[in-house]
Amino acid sequence: MPKYEQHKVWLNGKVVPPEEAKISVFSQAVLRGGSVYEGLRAYWGAERENLFVWMLDPHLDRLFDSMKVMRIDPPYSREEMRDAVVEWIRANDFREDMHCRLFIYLEDAGGLDMKGYGSAEVEAGMFISGGPRKAPERLKNGVNLGVSSWRRISDDSIPPRVKAAANYQNSRFAGVEARVNGYDDALILNQSGKVAEATGACVLAIREGELIAPPVTESILESITRSCILEMYGKYIGKPVTERPLDRTELYVADEAIMCGSGEEVTPIVTVDRVAVGSGEPGPLTRQLQDVFFTAVRGNDEAYEKGLTPVY
Ligand code: PMP
Asked: What residues flank ligand 1, with Cβ below 6 Å?
């Protein structure tokens, strides 16, 4: 795994050495999981000799949505946050593929305990941490998923639409169970028994050329990569894209299946519950989508120029 603790951290307006990047044991973030964040990637574009943050604005949009739902007053403006990401990458002089977290956390709420919400009662802080992250083997070989016995959190309890760090305790239950059972990762069903998502990525199926994606009301994070992939599939593969609920057994009979997200990028799913998806190897349309995706993120597709924030 990448070692993010070796690199400088942006913490509340300052770039500090990692050993100085500390938050309080009295913070709501530590005590109750009071935080929201974004996981972002930047890619090195060899042809243009620049590093490009991928889809920074959509990530900031989602972060502001997460803060709104969680009633957290934003500690910085969008522009300040955009500048902070670029400033932090430059301070570390990263010039290779990398990943970072832009993290908003609730400080100590004093006597108000966990019910304080306005900035007069509980301040929010922000940090950015991360580092280089190389393409993992699973992009080539795919992953084996097992359907979890745990169900996905839902909008009426802990909304999965919000990218709250606390939501990842649900992912952890499923992910640990999957590992204990010998799978690479878990596939989590929602409260209706339909496919929601993986522990940290969205799930898509391809059946007879049609790309099928569980809608954003199926207890999933409103994934930025998912939106990109749905658009790219229609645009470059030229076959139908359908957003509709997806059954577990549709993955058993699908020709191809994909896990997608900023962290997972475009990862082939080769088995589900030890049932081979298609041939049990990464499929041709998944490979094509990977090509299209990596061409865009490295700054070689004009159609996605707007999704790139050049760092240097
Ligand atoms: N679902 C979950 C639970 C995730 O953690 C992620 C990764 N952020 C995704 C989906 C994919 O979202 P995105 O494409 O915006 O990274």
From this structure: 39, 197, 200-202, 220-221, 223-226, 261-263
Range 141-148 average pLDDT: 98
Give φ, ψ of 115 to 5 degrees. Answer: -95, -5
Q: Which of 231-235's residues contact partners 24+ apart within 8 Å by CB, and which partners? A: 232/289, 232/292, 232/293, 232/296, 233/289, 235/303
36, 61, 196, 201 from 78: Cα distances, Å: 15, 8, 30, 25
Q: What's this model's pTM, rounded to 2 decimal places?
A: 0.97
Spatial separation of the C-alpha atoms in residues 120 and 112, rounded to whole Å: 11
Neighbours of 6 (CB within 10 A): 10
Q: For residue 1, what pLDDT band results from cuts at 50, 70 and 90? A: low
Specify the pLDDT at position 118. 86
Candidate from 40, 221, 222, 229 with most ligand 1 atoms within 8 A of CB, to mutate? 221
Rounded Cα gap, residues 269 and 246, in angstroms: 15
| Shortest-distance Cα residue to atom 5 of ligand 1 | 200
